[in-house]
Each structure stands twice: as structure tokens, then as C-alpha cells.
Amino acid sequence: MPALAAIGGVGVASAQDATPAADVVTGGTLRVGLSADPAELDPHLTSLTAAWHVIEHVYETLVSYDETLAPIPALAESWEISEDGLTYTFALRQGVKFHNGRDFVADDVVYSFNRIIDPETASPSSSDFINVTSIKAPDAATAVVTLTAPDASFIAKLMGTSV
Fold first, then answer.
1. Nearest to 9 by CA among 31, 34, 29, 30
2. Is position 39 within any domain?
3. Pairing of β 71-73 and β 76-81
4. Is 149 a domain residue?
5. pLDDT for 6-54, tens place per residue?
6. Count of domains in the chain?
7. In CATH, what number is assigned to the domain containing residue 132?
8. What residue numbers bound the domain in which 92 lies?
9. 45 lies in a domain?
10. Do 59 and 53 meet the contact criterion of CB atoms below 8 Å apart?
11. What pTM, to 2 d.p., does this model score?
């Protein structure tokens, strides 16, 4: 309920205030009020608020944040940062599926970030990752990002970047 209220711009005190339904209802139609029609729902091509009100509920990020805005796992179960601050190794959550049933794997992370930084894409997020030199998938459950210089805000940038 709080997530749906957030989409429509209506406040809800907390998840604890919600009374769970006695019976789960499946199917039907969900109607959500938006302030404007999003012109684009590709998270790598838009920076418009109207689109992000939808995108943030459709796509997932590697890293999310808790109520204190501290980073927490999302698609990445965990991550390690090299001592020199140049290499980020992400252990990806297993069992995640796309809408078509295909497994989420490290190659999807590589594709997404290569797409963001590709000048042909012209992603509004590309400047956030200008110091990324490589993105690799040593195996299906691991993504490794290498930077040209340490970036204290790198994890924070991932919190708002859909994969």
C-alpha cells in the first residue's frame, strides 16, 4: 500500500498502519494516478519525474537504500570494494527473473552499464559513470566494475540506476 500511495503522491504513515487483507485477490486492473503521462519508460533514456514515478516501481537497482539512506542490497546481495577504491565486485542475487521468465545474470549488468555509458545511447545518467573503465562478468553471479579513480559516491549513484 505505501508503494502505491507513493506513486499517486498520497502519503501513508507507515506499513505497520496497513491492515492486511483477509484474502489475496489476484488479477483485475490497478489504476494509478500520475501527475503527467510519461513520454518514455526506458530508465536509460529519461530523467523526467513523470517517468521515474513509474520506472522506480518497474525496474530494480543493484543497490538500494534503507530509511536512513544507507546503502542496502537489492539486485546485488553484497559487494566488495578493493583497497585502492578502483574495483567493485558485486555478488548478484540468485533466483531473480525477468518478466519473461529469463534468469537475471551478470551479463545483464554488463549490458545495462555499457548501454548507459555508450555515447550512442545519450543516457542522461552517463556522466555518473564517466570514470568507469570496464564492466565484466567473470561468472553468471558476479559483476566487476573498474574505475579510473576512486569515487566515494559510486554506490550512491547505483542506488538510482536501473539495471
1. 34
2. no
3. unpaired
4. yes
5. 444 444 444 455 666 678 888 888 888 888 888 877 777 777 777 767 7
6. 1
7. 3.90.76.10
8. 63-158
9. no
10. no
11. 0.75
What tens digit of pLDDT does each residue of 84-133 get? 999 999 999 999 999 899 999 999 999 999 999 999 998 888 899 999 99
Q: What is the pLDDT of residues 122-160, one digit of tens each?
A: 888 889 999 999 999 999 999 999 999 999 999 999 987
Measured CA to CA, the distance from residue 19 to residue 1 in angstroms comes to 10
Q: What residues contact residue 114 under an 8 Å CB cut-off, 6+ apart?
A: 135
In 3D space, the residue among 42, 45, 43 whose CA is nearest the CA of residue 121 turns out to be 45
Residues 37-50 pLDDT 10s = 888 777 777 777 77
2 pLDDT higher than 50 = no
38 belongs to a structural domain: no
* Location of C-alpha cell 561468472: 139
